[in-house]
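Lab meeting prep.
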Amino acid sequence: MAAPVIRHLPDIGITMISRWVFNCYVVHDGGDGRPFVVDLGLPSQVPLVADALRSTGAELADLGAAVATHGHLDHVGGLPGLCEAHGTDVLLPRTIEDMLAGRMALRSPGPRQVAQILPVLADQPTDLAALRELQPLQGEIGYDGRAIRFDLVPAAWLGDDDHLPGRPDWRVLHAPGHTDDSTCLYHEPSRTLLSGDSVLTLDGRAWFNPEYVDARRSAATETRLRDLPVEHLLPGHGRAVTGPDVMDRAWSFADRPPGTSKLRALAHVLTNHAGRHQH
């Protein structure tokens, strides 16, 4: 198992916790004096979140909320364990409520769409154990194109232009395209965008996600987010990108940036892994 990558961003008071491309974020002070966590996708990230909190004298029980940017398993898989142990308030996009009620069809990117982001998978240290960790959670929480399950009762459903409860500087932006429930969290004072899967990063540049269920909505989301002043982009997949020109340099969801060499490297890793497990 590869070591997790922990990146502290003291300028904005956030810790980024990555296992392969599965990123979650600890916001150490949401504005109410309490920390919250975003996109806790893996159970193994829970103790890493605890470590990050201890660095500021806090504990898991001090978490004010656990927020998911959308309902895919790799963004919610760690929530049941956290909530069972600590009763943490969960905040989910309101569109998930519509999916659960049958008012909105379940749509999730298919294999051809997922293949578009393979270069992103090669841009962070490969950790196949993180991928295997998700497999037994399939069907237990989250949704795909066929089924949805959320046994957790959220403390609040988050709609477009809402503010996180008790945290007025953090604004919720409905950003559909990758999925219908995709959202971002924007912190205007620090010009920070927690972009979920609406914007990925590759080779130090932002990339509006080419893995989508709806091209029209992806285009509208791209137009909206490009207008934001962003200096800190914290994606669901990829490395954090900072600078005054984050959105100016961003690739469009329709672009296919160069990533051939990284893709070959990833294929080599996966082939070797498959070969070892054939015996």
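Slide two material, second protein:
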Amino acid sequence: MPNDPLAALLASGKSPPEIVAAVAADADVIHTPCGEGNLVWRRWGKGKGSPVVLVHGGSGSWTHWIKTIPALKQSREVWAVDMPGLGDSDFPPHPHTPAGCGLPLALGLKSLFPVKGQVQVVAFSFGAHVTSHALLHLKDHARDFTITGCAALGLPQGPGKEFPREMENMSEAERMGVHRDLLEILMFKEPSRIDPLAVYLQSENVGKARFRSRPFARSDEIRRNLMEIDIPVKAVWGGNDQTAWPSIEARFDVLREFHPELVTRTVPDAGHWVMYEQPAAYNAALAEMLAI
């Protein structure tokens, strides 16, 4: 994979919306049922290699993977889904919980990838929570499950900081400042790496988010679900992930409890949104995981 898959676009002077449009331009858009509407999937590189599904994090969309897709699609068929109630996807059926979101994801995966062992699933943060519920329905249908930066492992949460919020009377600059501050608190290790594209993606994704994932982060649902998931589990974490309190190794230990086969990679000098902050290192680590 190239070291920086978006280098040419980022250096071209294109605006953030133009960059998103350029990455999305060669994607096929597919719908599967979700509640009273649809789950929205995007596919790049049809037939190029065995399929990989990317599942984004809370208050996000497929654009969480904007620096992974251009590299990965060179050798693989890449799918990115907008989770229920997020991005362009409709709300899940009741109950509005990670388990409720997991069912339409499972049904979509089963219908789009009918052959057992055909698809590999990679999930980020809250996406791993929802995917763990989907895999309970899928049993051993998927080939493996790679987790990046999840909570819901039953570990104590760190002290954290209060998240800034948009106010009705804010100017556009003030509104963008709120989103930049949130990225600094939660998503990045190094604030200087927060560029206009990252702020734009955060603003757009939060603006579309109807499903609120934060209340579920303190649960141990992923840990309990892993007890019943029979496929291999792998993990890639940012070495300075602010959400990985008390430590990344403590999180790996929980994942190993029911999956001693766990293979791990830690990407140095990266926060929670590791695939954006250190794309070359993350993409290399992910390529290793997918090849195992």
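Talking points for slide two:
Residues 72 and 208 are 26 Å apart (CA to CA).
The longest strand covers residues 37-44.
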